[in-house]
Amino acid sequence: MVTDIIEDIKNITLYIMDELNIDRMPTIEEIRRSNYRELERMIYSNGGMTLWAKKLNLPTKKKIYRDSSLTKEEEIIRGIKQVQEILKINCMPTYSQIRTTLENGYSITGLISKGNGYRYYANLLNLDLQTSETNFGIDYEFKTLDMLLNKGFEVEKMSVKHPYDILVNKETKIDVKTSNLHNTKTGSFFKFNIWSKKHNCDYYIAHCVLDEKIFKTLIIPSKELRSYNFSVGMRSKYDVYKDKWDLIKQA
Fold first, then answer.
1. Of the residues 33, 110, 139, 193, which has the fewest C-beta atoms closer than 10 A?
2. Of 199 and 201, which is predicted with more confidence?
3. DSSP string of 60-102, one letter each residue
């Protein structure tokens, strides 16, 4: 039994390290964002993070302090430019590139998300977006607009300065999330990042995309989500919200 726990902790930790492209012990925040809460439970039930970092012979992440001489926007811009220099790219780095390149990458992407947003900083610095999850997400925002229009809703696409994507019937705030299927050793799922526990919308419209087609669309009340991310399996507890467009009409 003990051997099984050790093996499980080791294997899941190594998998997260590979997923995040890091060579140190993942932090609790990184474990949570990777949607492996079971690993967090196993670690804290069996000695804690420091003990397991030593057992696995892994260094821990150094604490990064914010530069108090910089505004949040200046810190974001500096982080973006550092990633560009390290990776030798001229375009806007993706969230994953920022997180895996900088020691304070999660802090920088958090500031971006809670501030004016990813596209705002790309526009501010006159940087092209990569063909990535960002452009992928933008495409589905416009597809969602069309879907809502076809269902008789009045819709308005919001600017990059807004913390949500679409305003429906002049009052209901919608944030659009899109994910391809992720295949892992422990199963297959669609993963959606929220970035903040404080919701700025009334509903999330989550598109699960399989083989470049929408496998299912979920209309989830934001009050039902209480973490930084959520995962949806091929069969999921969130399936009760599949195609529940009437929820928006009732809002």
1. 139
2. 201
3. PPPP----TTS-HHHHHHHHHHHHHHHHT-SSPPPHHHHHHHS
